[in-house]
Each structure stands twice: as C-alpha cells, then as structure tokens.
Amino acid sequence: MATQHSQPADRLTMAPPAPEPASQPAAADHQSGTKHARTAARLMMAPAVILLLGWMLVPLTMTLYFSFKKFLPLRGGDLGWVGFDNYVRFVSSSAFWPSVQATLVIVGGVLAITVVLGVLLAILLNQPMWGRGVVRILVIAPFFVMPTVSALVWKNMFMDPVNGLLAHVWRAFGAEPLVWLTEASTQSIILIVSWQWLPFATLILLTAIQSLDSEQLEAAEMDGAPPVKRFAYITLPHLSRAITVVVLIQTIFLLSIFAEIFVTTQGAFGTKTLTYLIFQRVLESQNIGLGSAGGVYAIILANIVAIFLMRIVGKNLDA
Amino acid sequence: MGRITLDKVSKSFGDVQVIPPLDLTIDDGEFTVFVGPSGCGKSTLLRLIAGLEDVSSGQIRIDKQDATHVPPAKRGLAMVFQSYALYPHMSVRKNIAFPMKMAKVPVEEQNRRIEAAANALNLTDYLDRRPGQLSGGQRQRVAIGRAIVREPSAFLFDEPLSNLDAALRVGMRLEISELHERLETTMIYVTHDQVEAMTMADKIVVLQAGVIEQVGSPLELYHTPRNKFVAGFIGSPKMNFIEGKEAAKHGAHTIGIRPEHIEVSGEAGTWSGVVSVSEHLGSDTFFHVHGTGLAETITVRADGEVGFRHGDRIFMTPRADVIHKFDAEGLRIA
Fold it and tell me: Which domain of life does the UniProt lineage start with (chain B) (predicted)?
C-alpha cells in the first residue's frame, strides 16, 4: 500500500523541473490579452490544479506520516510514533546501497542503449525505402506490449536456458547456453527494459530528424564534410533537444520499473532496485513504516537524479 | 580559374526528363544568371553543376577537368542556398570556419580569412552570435561569407534573395554585384526575377522546361529576343503581342512591341483605345488599354507627367524601328 503511495509521489516531484509544465503558463499569458481574461483563465484552470495538487500532496503526506510510525499490519497494527527509527533502519540495511546502485545502473544502461540505438534506428527509418510505413509501425509495436507480458516472453521464450531461443543460438555455435537471469541478471533486465523503451526513443528522435533541413546537410556536403562528420556536426546537434526530452521522460519512468523485476528475478542476483526494495519491506516484511521511509528516500534519489540531469542536458531545452 | 562547360548534360527523375541534353559554357569570371519561370529546371541545373544531383548523361567540365563524377566537396565550388542553410547551433564565426575546418586549414589562416570576410561583409560585430539572432540580410551575408572563405573557383547562388523583403533585396543585389567586381570569380546565379537577371548578369541563360531558350548579354536579350518566350519574359512590363491583320502588315504571324516603345497622344496616332487602368509610379505611368481591336490589353509606358485616367480615349503610335516580328512557331524573323 505504501508502495502505491510513494510511487506517484516520486513521479510528481520529478514533474516540476520537466520542461512542458514550465512553458505552458507563458503561452497562456501570451494568448489572453486582458487582465479580465487572465482572471477567468485562472479560475477555469483552478479545478485541475487543485486536483493535481491533491493527487500529489495526499500520498506524499501519508507517506511522510507512516514513515514516522511503527506500523505492522499483521503484527499489531499501529504501534505508535518512532521518530527517525525507520529512516535509520532503512539506510543501515545491507540491501540499501546495492539497491541504489542497481537502480542507477539499470536506468543508466537503458538510457545509453535506447538513445544510441534510437538515433541509429531513427536515421535508418528516415531513409527512403520500400515498405517504410509498415516498418515504422512494427518498430513502434513493442511499446504497446505490457511490461509484465514482455518480461515473461523474454524470460520464457528467449532467455530460458533449456528451451529459450537464445539457448538454441548458443548451442548452434557449440557454446554452453547462458543462464541469463542468474549469470547476467542486471544485463538481462536492462535488455528487456531497453527493448520496451527503444520504440519510444526512436519515435521521438525520428520526428526530430524529419525536421532537419536537407539544405543544411547539402551545405555541409559542399563544405567538404564526409557523412560521419555531417552526422557529428549537423544531425547530432539538431537532435540534442529531442535526446534531452527522451532522457528526461525515460528517467522518470525507469526509476520506478517494477513489473520486469517482479516476474523475472524477484530482486535476486543484484537486480533489487530501490522501488523493489520498498515493495519487499512493505509487502513481504509487512512493515509499512519502513517502506514509507524508503519511499521518502526514493523521492530524494529521484530529485538528485533530476538535478544532475537538468544540469547536464537541461541547457539543450532553451533557445 | 573557373570555366565551367556542360556537354550534352541531361537529367531525368525516373521516367520524367526534366532537362533534355544541353550544352553551355560559362567563362572564367563571368556572372551568369539562369532565369526562367518556376519549375523550368534552373535550380536542378545548378544542383547538377554543384554535384548535389547526378547527371543522367553528358559531361560537366570544370577548368577542362572532367568533374561529372567528382563529389561536390572536391569540385571547388561554393554554394549559397535559398534558405541560407546556416548551421543553427554554431556561432557566425564557426559557421564561416566550418568549410576551412573540414579542409584542415591551419587555425591562424582560418582566423585571417574569417576577419577578412567579416570586414568585407560588415559582420565583424556579429561573429559571436548564433544565426537565429540575425536578421534575414545578415544571415544572407553569413552564407556568402561561408562561401567566400573557401576561395572557390566559382560561386553558385540558388535564389539567394527570394526570402528577403523588397528593399533589402535591392541592397543585397548591389552587394553581390560589388562582390563580383572585387573578386572577379565566376558566379552562377539562379533566379525567377528577370529584374535581378537584367541588373546583375554578364550573361543570361533563359530556360523553359529544361531547355535553353537563349543565351546572351542582358541587352542582347532585350533587343533581339530569339523567340516569343524570351521576348515576353525579359522586360517589364511585358511586351505586347499582336496577331492577325496588324501583324500581317509587317509580314509576320505575330509582332511584339514593348510598352516603352509606344508613343501616347490624346489627339492622333496609329492605334486607339480606352484606358482601363493607369498605374502612376511617379517617374513613369503605365496604361492598360482595352478596345484597341489588336489584343485584349495593350500596355503602354508613358512619362510620369502624362495624366490620362480610366475611361479616356487615347492614341498610340509604335516606334517602327523596334517592332519585333515572329513567325507562326514563335521564332524571331530577321
């Protein structure tokens, strides 16, 4: 339950630094000329703003409330206030730092793979070729598969060490099949999640690449830039803003991946992310207070990541 | 050095032949303008010379070297695009330096050429700005600067002034002409505006549907157009064409008379008609005359002081020595 509380909370605290909400008020001001119209606009936006605020504040307050309590639903319920005990216990647990590390490795790995392959795929899909429309739809398709389903398909059909497709490939080359989820567990999770998010990155980057003025590439060609340099000096800078958007949006969602871990490794073999650790504290240990404290740490981690990301890539969003 | 020769060059896109085989020579240091209505293949011809499109057949020679299959960067030509095609994420300085950076020119030499180009084009104060912070005319100058620093054997301009407002266009036209006087480099300039062609060119190439209609100096084209198309395209306002009996009197299928070669009078003349619209430009007045029995409308240029109005009957006398005669195919007679 506290997992459900803390998750929306950490998503929503990520939201303010994101670009879109910030640019909207400016656009609204521009359209409504008079003071009267502005007041009316505020009044009409109020319900939505209040609803969103409530949506964010209620779970956040409840998470904070439970995090200072000893609350064990199956072992006596509410056992009173305990101050910062839950916070100390959560951090001092031997599982805490490895879980932070696993979270960052998985998020970073997926981001790197989806951005690099996304750029390459976008360039490929932008080439004129036969059946381009169909290929584009096929490329988008994985995004529509539910995370639970895709993770199960990967686990049972591809990564199974006996009957999996990859095991057959390994055997075809005479190699011992890899027990993916045990021997390369983090990499496997990264692979599965990347497969899910690659279409998103490709889609955003493809639309960006389509807006590149072909005369710029021709000018660079006349200026003596070979294809690789045209990519580095013209295409990549043009894509920087789209890459930023992909990185920021994906980070928000990747910090809270859960289903992929739940149906594959169940957090074993170093794949226990912070989200999964909180889930275990709340549901497996039945300790809501401890889990809520973990939720607050998740909010802090998400904001630290957000600050770093905005420092690194945020400048691409201006101008 | 920049003599460009096209030898039976043609271009097809799929089954559609946009440029039938054509021959053309552009001499070193010449300012050549390709002019024609939109879709006549003039930009395609320029892109063939630049190497951005492959020729379907024929040969392109630059300074007697076969350049037909040489990649664009190796042809030693610089191009200024209609959209300027500046690199938006680079400062003006970096934009201008880009071709030299690609050619691995030493940094001191790069800076020297950038300073020289910036001075020549009044860009010194803008070197550290991004293209997005510049006005249209300034962007145009940056694009020209980026072309100049390569020290090309010829400049190619693809409708460079069509995105500028009228006043700026006149200014930039002069600047490009001055640049040509100073550099004495071959320039090929594509435009659909016959005024630009007439004012800037040493040699005009008039194109229609991929075919060269006539090549010549501006005044040659004005005085002795080879056919009706060139006669109608060069000169503003358009030449009047008269068919039928009046043309037969001169022994031609069609006669053409420019608006500025018709005398206007209120009392007497060869032809008469009723003024439909009079356009007063101050220096000149244009009358659009109906009901002459010769053609639907006859356009006449008169002095700015001549004050006929809508509905006035006027008399017109063509100057006999400048009547252009065309046969049934539209070709010039004698």
Answer: Bacteria
Shortest distance, CA A319 to any CA of chain B (angstroms):
9
**Is B82 within 8 Å of chain A by CB?**
yes
The reported pLDDT for the residue numbered A17 is 40
pLDDT in tens, A73-123: 888 888 888 888 889 989 998 888 999 999 999 999 999 999 999 999 999
Asked if B146 and A237 come within 8 Å (Cβ–Cβ), the reply is no
For domain B237-326, give the CATH superfamily. Nucleic acid-binding proteins (2.40.50.140)
Whether residues A221 and B89 touch (CB distance < 8 A) is answered with no
CB neighbour class for A299 (10 Å; exposed up to 12, middle 13-18, buried from 19): buried
Taking CA–CA distances from B53, the nearest residue in chain A reads A218
How many percent of chain A have pLDDT more than 70? Answer: 89
In a domain, A125, yes or no: yes
**Three-state SS string across A178-212, please?**
CCHHHHCHHHHHHHHHHHHHHHHHHHHHHHHHHCC
pLDDT digits (tens, 9 = 90+) for B224-244: 999 999 999 998 889 999 988
Q: Do A215 and B98 touch (CB under 8 A)?
A: no
Distances in whole angstroms, Cα of residue B158 to Cα of each of A153, B112, B196, B237 = 55, 27, 13, 25
Best of B54, B75, B82, B102 to disrupt the A interface (most A CBs within 10 Å) is: B102
Under 8 Å CB pairs connecting chains A and B tally to 58
* Residue B67 exposure: Cα atoms within 13 Å on the Cβ side: 24
Within 8 A of B150 by CB-CB distance, chain A residues are 223
Choose the closest CB to A223 out of B71, B89, B102: B102
Chain A residues closer than 8 Å to B77 by CB: 222
Confidence check: pLDDT of A176 > 70: yes
Distance set, CA B50 to CA A221, B57, B70, B203 (Å): 10, 16, 10, 19
Q: What six digits make up the tokens of A265?
A: 């490794």
Residue pair A264/A153 in contact by the 8 Å Cβ criterion: no
B205 contact partners, CB below 8 Å, separation of at least 6: B24, B32, B33, B34, B35, B212, B214, B215
Candidate from B73, B89, B130 with C-beta closest to A222: B73
B145 vs A: CB within 8 A: no
Is B83's Cβ below 8 Å from some Cβ in A? Answer: yes
Domain extents in chain B: 4-231, 237-326
Cβ–Cβ contact A234 with B under 8 A: yes
- pLDDT, mean of residues B104-128: 90
Which residues of chain B are within 8 Å of residue A218 when distances are taken between CB atoms? 52, 72, 79, 81, 85
* Residue A232 domain-assigned (yes or no): no
Domain containing A149 equals 2-214+246-317
- Look at residue A140 and tell me whether its pLDDT is greater than 70: yes
- Provide mean pLDDT across the span A203-218: 91
Query: Domain B4-231, what fold?
Result: Rossmann fold (3.40.50)
Contacts with B, A 182-221, CB within 8 Å:
213, 215-216, 218-221
Does A153 reside within a domain? yes
**For the whole prediction, is pTM greater than 0.80?**
no
Q: How many whole angstroms separate alpha carbon B233 and alpha carbon A316?
A: 49
B275 DSSP β-pair partners: B289
pLDDT tens for each residue of B158-188:
998 888 888 888 888 998 999 899 889 999 9
pLDDT tens track for A35-54: 888 899 999 999 999 999 99
Q: How confident is the model at residue A14 (pLDDT cuts 50, 70, 90)?
A: very low
CATH of the domain at A256: 1.10.3720.10
Per the structure, the count of domains in chain A is: 1
The answer to the question of residue A275 being in a domain is yes
The residues, any chain, with a CB within 8 Å of residue B105's CB and separated by 6 or more, are B113
